[in-house]
Amino acid sequence: MTTTTSSATGTLGRSRADGVRRTFARYPVLGPTAALVLAIIVFSVSTTTFFNIDNFSLIVQQSVVIGTLALGQTLIILTAGIDLANAAIAVFGTLLLTRLTIGGTPSAVAILLGLVACTVVATVSGLLVTRIKLPPFIVTLGMLAVMTAVTNLYSGGTTYPVPDGLLTWLGTSLYLFGRVQFTMGMILAALLFVLMWFVLSKTAWGRHVYAVGNEPEAARLTGIHIDRTLVSVYAVAGVIYGFAAWMALGRTPTADPNAYQTGNLDSITAVVIGGTSLFGGRGGVVGTIIGALIVAILRSGLTQMGIDSNYQNLATGVLVIAAVAFDQATRRRG
After folding, report:
1. What domain range is 299 assigned to?
2. Does the pLDDT of residue 2 top 60, yes or no?
């Protein structure tokens, strides 16, 4: 009787554990959400300066550019790809917008040309992936080197002051209820996230993106044009990188060719921590928002605790490895 009871208890326990794993596999955003809440609680208890409105506002402002880069990165990772050149494309965009405006081009036209340029560069990556069948890692690694060199040649290796006006407009601060500070860049980033959430979850194109990342051959057999979908994903990501470039000009007074050197890795970190699978077909923009906030909160909290930046990088790296390991485990169970 005791053996039977123990066996039943063990079976029930395994069943519950499998149920929990299946729930996390079905809703990948649950894990990052729990991590975000835990981080806020820990740093609020550990410091006296973390839990206040001004600090939270600053954290969100600091995560706007990387979060927007991560939005474009999310689209590409959903197709089982990766983009190591996204930050380099955005930095080129900042120099292009700034130099065109300094040269007399109207700011609105300069912004439009910057968006087009970023889109064209990202689309080239997509074409190389689809036409020549090169791995996205290799293509975007090469594009990273190309865009870094092009940006330095174009800028002469020097920084340029950002002209006031439309280029810096996204850095304009507003106050909600006269107390909560936010910027126009935060509003634009929020609109982009909402738009991409709608497109991915409510349109045929979004379903095609998930299908291509999940099982390309099955997607092809159902009539989805895989190459066309992939190229469109890189193009849309390029547009988002262009907006990230505009946001960056609202954050800093100069366009620097050496800015955001780890932006590509930071954006990948936000996407992975947010629950989007590196193997494609699983995740979404909501998780990316949470992932970007986790990274920003982790660095802010550890800084306020007086933790050395090397340990901050160590904690972020461990978190990324844990997120990928968790993703693999839930996919196997699924």
Report:
1. 28-327
2. no
Tell me if the pTM is above 0.85: yes
CATH number at residue 164: 1.10.3470
211: CB partners within 8 A, 6+ apart: 218, 219, 222, 224, 281
- State whether the Cα torsion 113-119-121-124 is positive or negative: negative
257-277: average pLDDT = 91
Neighbouring C-alpha atoms within 13 Å toward the C-beta of 33: 8
pLDDT attached to residue 29: 80
Q: How far apart are CA 105 and CA 330, in angstroms?
A: 52
- Give the pLDDT score at 15: 61
Query: Is residue 204, in this structure, part of any structural domain at all?
Result: yes
- Looking up tokens 């900042």 gives 94
User: What gap in Å lies between CA 176 and CA 15, rounded to an integer?
Assistant: 48
Q: Compute the residue count for the chain.
A: 334
Query: What are the DSSP E strand ranges found in 140-234?
Result: 160-161, 173-176, 180-183
User: What is the pLDDT at residue 87?
Assistant: 96
How many domains are contained in the chain?
1
Q: 121 to each of 20, 108, 124, 127, 235, how far by Cα in Å?
A: 43, 20, 5, 10, 8
Whether the pLDDT of residue 233 is over 90: the answer is yes
Distances (CA, A) of 171 to 93, 182, 185: 17, 9, 6
Asked whether residue 309 is assigned to any structural domain, the reply reads yes
3-state secondary structure of 267: helix
Kindly state the percentage of the chain with pLDDT values over 70.
Answer: 90
In a domain, residue 271? The reply is yes
